[in-house]
Amino acid sequence: MDDRATSTHKDEPEAILHGGDLAAVSRLYPDAPLPWIDLSTGINPIPYPVPTVPAESWTRLPSKPDEDALLSVAAARYRLRTPASIVVAAGTQALLQILPRLRASSSVAVFAPTYEEHELCWRRCGHRVRLVDKVDALAEADVAIVVNPNNPTGRLLPRATLHLLGVTLARRNGLLVVDEAFADFCPVEASLIPNLPPATLVLRSFGKAYGLAGLRLGFAITSQDLADQLRRALGPWAVSGPALAIGSIALADDQWLRDARVRLVSDGQRLDTMLTASGCQIHSLGSRALGGTPLFRLVENANAAALAERLARHGIHVRRFPAQPNWLRFGLPGDASEWQRLAQALGGAF
User: What element of type H or E holds 241?
Assistant: First the structure.
């Protein structure tokens, strides 16, 4: 799942504009140099090296032992005592779409601006959805939804704040949904896992941190009762055999994750320097204003539209926000040639 920023209240958009839409942008700029550099998503540009998986992962139906093996590794990665509270699906988007079907008509508050699929999925299922920008307003709903760290702003609510919110909602049979899709490279203290408050569900994405978004793999971590409901709703063979095998190997690789974290910090600082020199404003990470996460930066520029246009004519796609015309979001370049092309398009020698 990638993203768009929520801004104005809509009944139900016909379609949501996401990053990664290279086919569409290439039609708009047919003379742009190839290959396109896609900086419009928040996906790790240097992916986990895809391992060789057993041939039977491709030829037989996914087995329960293979799924159990993945859940055991995921429990260790996310610091859980038992895998009983983890549900695996073909990406967090699948979980996000199923969850609203498991509750009766509810009032839903989405902490905005944020990833708009949350609003859309609950609204499509007949729930009463409103966008809020105050934590206190979240506590007034039956279901509260927070993306933490937020996409696209990088806003990070303290764990204590979310824990109290979960306790408050539990008293009224409510539900707190926390989307931690971009939490893998944040300090462990940023996550609600492993000490979940009551009536809480946490979403974790595999594809973003490991750079394998096409694998379609994601997790929900919640109470065993809600986890069982999600499993029944997903049905059998919800995740492919190759995804189970690759996820098990990657999530167990502590050294790769540590190395990736170090690289992303360094590359993020390099990108900050380039963007600041180009007239973009970046606020401190985790602030309530603009910022980002280790996987992307959101910047403000009075000439954002012109800058995005210039980059596109250089074959570089960045994330625009029609409702916030001064915002642009930049993912990280993946190799030396991409860094060089970005520097040239920005008009500097970095």
Answer: helix 241-251
